[in-house]
């Protein structure tokens, strides 16, 4: 009989080497597939960002200009390396519609503290996919994975106070506004901004 091995993410008081922690590479919902980054998605990623640059640029420092296919491919490969090393857990969001898989946007667990088991969710969605509940569906699935599989104690979502669409997603997904950090960062345009901090707690 083989000896059962404890999950290093939840057993004992010692902090495990994060690279040993099991993290699912795909998460499925009724309409979506969240998939870990992989080589070859650069062109699709570039097209999705290009379609949405006007909506993303006020909030996202990385979306100030349309990336080339090669630049987006480099981003995807760095994301894959970070995922493997458990430094940052990005997922691309795909539509599971019968007519074919289409890249809709991205989400992930960022600014992770494996000791506390604290994570921050980030997200973006291409313009043509907005208004259909996809982002809330993805965030709910990612939150469930964080609490159930990674045993998160705390999951946050942070955004510019003026980003009402992002705030609405957090609230629909059961995150509570804990506070607003005044002038704690600069917008992509270099202006001081306030940051809303939403959170959910695990057991």
TrEMBL record:
GO terms for molecular function: protein N-terminal-serine acetyltransferase activity; protein-N-terminal-alanine acetyltransferase activity. This is GNAT family N-acetyltransferase. It holds the Pfam family Acetyltransf_3. It comes from Kinneretia aquatilis. Residues 54-203 form the N-acetyltransferase domain. GO terms for cellular component: cytoplasm. Transmembrane segments: none annotated. Keywords: Transferase. The keyword Transferase applies. The keyword Ribosomal protein does not apply. The lineage of its organism: Bacteria, Pseudomonadati, Pseudomonadota, Betaproteobacteria, Burkholderiales. InterPro entries: Acyl_CoA_acyltransferase, GNAT_dom, Ribosomal_N-acetyltransferase.
């Amino acid at each position: 009989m083989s000896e059962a091995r404890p999950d290093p993410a939840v057993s004992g008081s010692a902090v495990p080497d994060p690279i040993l922690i099991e993290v699912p590479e795909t998460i499925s919902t009724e309409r979506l597939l969240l998939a870990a980054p992989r080589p070859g998605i650069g062109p699709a990623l570039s097209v999705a960002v290009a379609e949405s640059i006007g909506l993303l640029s006020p909030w996202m420092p990385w979306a100030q200009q349309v990336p080339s296919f090669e630049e987006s491919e480099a981003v995807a490969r760095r994301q894959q390396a970070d995922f493997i090393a458990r430094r940052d857990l990005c997922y691309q969001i795909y539509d599971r519609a019968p007519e074919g898989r289409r890249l809709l946007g991205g989400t992930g667990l960022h600014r992770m503290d494996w000791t506390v088991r604290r994570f921050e969710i980030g997200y973006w969605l291409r313009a043509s996919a907005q208004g259909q509940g996809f982002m809330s569906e993805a965030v709910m699935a990612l939150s469930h994975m964080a609490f159930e599989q990674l045993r998160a104690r705390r999951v946050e979502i942070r955004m510019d106070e003026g980003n009402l669409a992002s705030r609405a997603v957090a609230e629909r997904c059961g995150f509570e506004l804990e506070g607003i950090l005044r002038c704690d960062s600069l917008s992509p345009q270099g202006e001081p901004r306030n940051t809303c901090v939403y959170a959910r707690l695990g057991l």
